[in-house]
Input
Amino acid sequence: MMVSSSRLAVAVLSIGLLCVCHGFAPSALPSRLHQPSKSSSSMLQMGLDVVTYLRTEWVSAALVTNQTPRSADVCLQLGTQDGRAVQFVPRTVREIITSSVETDGVLPVSTRRQLKQQKERRSGSAKINYIDQRADDLKEVANESVDVVISLQSAAVMAENGLDWKNSVKEAGRVLKHGGRFIFVEQTMLGGEDYIDFIGNLRPPRDTTTTKSADREEEEDDFSYAPLFELVGFDDVDLVLEPHVAGVFAKSEIAGMSVDQMEKKEANKEKERLEDLSLAAYERGIKKRKRKKKPKKGEAAASTESSAE
Ligand SMILES: *[C@@H]1O[C@H](CO)[C@@H](O)[C@H](O)[C@H]1NC(C)=O
Output
């Protein structure tokens, strides 16, 4: 099983690059996999069969470890159910923010304990910010304040508990910085809906000050605005009984922009580029003049030289 795991094929979509070179190849097997007693209790918790549990566990570890950018400081987990996040995120992450799959938003005591245990085991890693908030209502987290959101087998549990997994993804889109990543291992289909399609088609909420309220009812179908997320890459998790999908989205830099705004942005970019060029040319000019001055012939000589230019 270990051999076949490392051969997991990676589908790379044209939109972005999922780093195939080291993606999906975990360097170390999470230690929990060697503790059958603990795994089986989590298995019951997540309601998955043994095979699906082990496979998704493996893929989650690999994906989070390899697809979290080294520049990421803050990581939020949608629906924290155990201590895995501590183990999976790279050591460069400084803060892990929790959210709950429970309707009262309270993080269960057992989850807190598991997070603490993992943190003790992995000394010197991220600070854990234990927040009692529902995964579908991240009320304690500011807009655009998070570098990475991870969602590991939590959407189905949310649905089971009466939480709105779709809203949890929208909330992820809200708290993520532009360019921030949404990393997931979830069931392929949830309540008859394709998980990836739902996220790929998501539009950010429109600014109500510029939109007439009458138009707002159609906003879900309004495709003249840029989507919230861009798909970086995904793959079906193989060898499982319950179909799962693993992948990465990035919050779009142009999320919510209209076609007009996008064109304006492009035009601005071009303008900025030209300005940068002329500025660079100007700076080169200054350097040249400075260089000319360098062979110190005395102040008078230098000033006559520059006035002659
Ligand atoms: C945060 O984002 C939401 C949705 O994108 C928006 O409605 C809200 O006004 C924003 N809040 C702040 C403080 O900018």
Notes: The two ends are 75 Å apart (CA to CA). The chain has two domains: 2-257, 261-308.
